[in-house]
Design a protein that fits this description.
single chain, about 650 residues, mainly beta, Methylamine Dehydrogenase, Chain H, 5 domains, 3 helices, 47 strands, about 35% strand, disordered N terminus
Length: about 650
């Protein structure tokens, strides 16, 4: 199949076409060839132009077809009688009927996609999460949690979302199964009708589910579709050859698509349909040719981005080329093998899949380049040589800076470069190197990483003990076990069975006070238990008035005063918690004072209070739920009556 096109979003600018019901002019598309996106509502239509402005036409009650001015819009969506638009800065604007808040979008500039239903709206955020607003009678505006969504669609009273793994989730009204998508993960596009849903698979075929009274989920066969759109009771699909097929309710001709194979976008309304027809190949001035997935300059065959005179096959001027994770720049060699430059998490991968080498060269002037570093296909690296015989071969000098650093030479000896002095015999001044030993002649002390050792062994840096042992004593002090190694981890004393400290332990804190462990900074643990055995407790009683206690506790977000209390090791960033002085007024038993007068809270002791509060609140909720269920039954009866009246009115209007 060809590239997938988002419903209503064109791959290139074109002219507008409309068909189906036209009692309010909703199918009378405006003239022009610069339209890039479309949206179809119940009786109105919207279109986005290439300059970023929006036009609207059709029924204009509540000004639903009167879009805001401006040329900074990138997407449009039309509901039953309200409209939405996404701006280039990531914010959303809404207009039209707002009886349920459906045209009042949330604040923010991190939105990347929008969808409009009957009386509710949806938006996808840049972090992959979804927000909903407007009518929520059937939970259609209450999207699932998560940050792995990539597309949204809104029906009358149900909603759909596609996840990054290709699966679909649905929520809201499910009377005909319209909110229960198939459990597959090969979908690339979604669309929602009144009481049915559609999805496009990666192989180019279409699936549908929900109400089929008008054949709206009796789908055309084939795997050559690249886009789908859904009206109230009909469906549309764009084929890879640019033609359109329609199915479902055709009471106003909304399924009878125009003939042609140069369409690039489709949209479905209540009883009308819209499409964008691509500008003919060659375009104005005949400077560019569009052929399938290719676009090229007629005079040169080169492609320019940011330049009108490309000098190479791809010429980018005045901007950057962004390559997201999982993509890359692929270079096909003459042999047919591929080389690539790819981002990989925080790294950059340079790949050569042929049996060849990777060269790093710099210019020498005059248009020539000199090889500086070579990685050959056997893994050897050469600097100054084109045929490295070892893992690293350097043709030239190597300078090693810093005392204690050095190199291993082929004869197995270690060259040590000291910071000062000039003594011979492999030493430096007062130092002697004898086999694997190094010591200070004047004092008998040994220094590693320091020129003035004050102890028999003075190490400035990391120390590796007992290389090669699997388990056993790694360090003794006065012949007693001080450091034990079990093959993976170290422990202090006791044969590797426990860590023992006679006094309180302070981590980042000189004086732990009366505490056995005082951590000045953040800690991390993968598990833990606190003693809670019945045998250890007395005066046990159920917590009284837990909700009152919780109601008097204020949860806050905050940042630590790190600059004022640098010795505390306070973590940076925003955090959540309570204020000890406030808790002391409600639950003084769980507040303690540290050695420096600062107060601390035992957060774990809030858990049983919350437990009892939740239990007490649950009793209240169960009583309220009984009342809600009764009211929902009443609402559902009224809703059926209203829907019947709406459809009867719609049929009268069409006649």
């Amino acid at each position: 199949m060809g590239p997938v096109v988002w419903s209503g979003q064109a791959t290139s600018p074109g002219s507008m076409h409309g068909w189906g019901q036209n009692n309010y002019g909703q199918s009378e598309a405006p003239a022009g060839s610069d339209f890039v996106a479309i949206g179809a509502g119940s009786y109105h239509s919207l279109a986005l132009k290439s300059d970023g402005s929006i036009v609207g036409w059709g029924y204009n009650a509540f000004d639903r077809a009167t879009p805001p001015a401006g040329n900074d819009f990138v997407a449009v969506a039309a509901g039953s009688d309200h409209s939405l638009a996404l701006k280039v800065d990531g914010s959303i604007v809404g207009w039209g009927q707002d009886s349920m808040g459906q045209a009042t979008p949330p604040d923010g500039t991190d939105f990347v996609a929008i969808a409009a239903g009957d009386r509710h709206s949806l938006a996808l955020k840049s972090d992959g999460s979804i927000v909903g607003w407007g009518s929520n009678l059937r939970d259609q505006a209450s999207p699932p949690a998560g940050t792995d969504f990539v597309a949204v669609a809104a029906g009358y009273y149900h909603s759909l979302a596609r996840k990054s793994d290709g699966s679909i989730v649905g929520w809201g009204y499910n009377s005909d199964g319209q909110a229960t998508p198939p459990e597959d993960s090969d979908f690339v596009a979604i669309a929602a009708g009144a009481w049915h849903s559609l999805a496009l698979r990666v192989d180019g075929s279409i699936v549908g589910w929900g109400d089929n009274d008008y054949g709206q989920v009796t789908l055309p066969a084939g795997n050559y579709f690249v886009a789908i759109a859904s009206g109230a009771r009909h469906g549309l699909a764009l084929k890879s050859d640019g033609s359109i097929v329609g199915w479902g309710d055709n009471n106003a001709g909304q399924v009878t698509s125009p003939v042609g194979n140069d369409f690039v976008a489709i949209a479905g309304g209540l009883n009308h349909s819209l499409a964008i027809k691509a500008t003919p190949s060659g375009g104005p001035g005949n400077d560019w040719i569009v052929s399938g997935d290719n676009m090229y300059s007629v005079p040169t065959g080169n492609v320019g981005i940011g330049t009108t005179s490309p000098e190479e096959k791809l010429h980018v001027s005045g901007g950057n080329i962004r390559i997201d994770y999982g993509s890359g720049i692929h270079i096909i060699q003459q042999s047919g093998h591929m080389s690539a430059i790819q981002p990989y998490y925080n790294d950059l991968k340079i790949l050569n899949f042929a049996a060849g080498d990777i060269w790093f060269s710099t210019g020498t002037g005059g248009g020539s380049a000199q090889l500086r570093l070579l990685i050959v296909n056997d893994g050897n690296v050469g600097i100054g040589t084109t045929s490295p015989a070892e893992k690293l071969e350097v043709s030239g000098n190597i300078k090693v800076s810093g005392f204690g650093n050095g190199l291993i030479f082929p004869d197995g000896t270690r060259q040590i470069t000291a910071g000062a002095g000039g003594g011979g015999g492999g030493g430096d001044g007062g130092w002697m190197v004898s086999g694997n030993n190094m010591y200070s002649i004047p004092s008998g002390n040994v220094g590693i990483g320091t020129v003035s050792p004050h102890e028999k062994l003075d190490v400035a840096g990391a120390l590796n003990l007992n290389e090669g042992i699997y388990t056993g004593v790694a360090l003794r002090v006065n012949r007693a076990e001080a450091l034990w190694y079990n093959g993976d981890y170290f422990s202090w004393g006791f044969g590797g069975t426990a860590n023992f400290f006679a006094d309180g332990v302070g981590i980042g804190q000189v004086d732990p006070g009366p505490h056995k462990l005082y951590v000045n900074g953040t800690g991390y643990a993968t598990g833990g238990f606190w003693a809670s055995d019945l045998r250890f407790k007395k005066n046990i009683r159920t917590i009284d008035s837990p909700i009152d206690k919780i109601s008097n506790i204020r949860g806050v977000s905050f940042e630590w005063k790190r600059s004022e209390y640098q010795d505390k090791g306070l973590p940076e960033g925003e955090h959540y918690g309570v204020i000890a002085q406030e808790i002391e007024q409600v639950l003084p038993e769980i507040v303690k004072e540290g050695p420096n007068g600062d107060k601390a809270v035992s957060y774990t002791e809030l858990v049983p209070i919350l437990t009892e509060a939740i239990k007490e609140q649950q009793k209240q909720l169960e009583e309220q739920q009984k009342q809600i269920e009764y009211l929902l039954q009443r609402v559902e009866s009224l809703e059926r009556f209203v829907q019947q009246q709406q459809f009867a009115l719609a049929e009268q209007t069409q006649q």
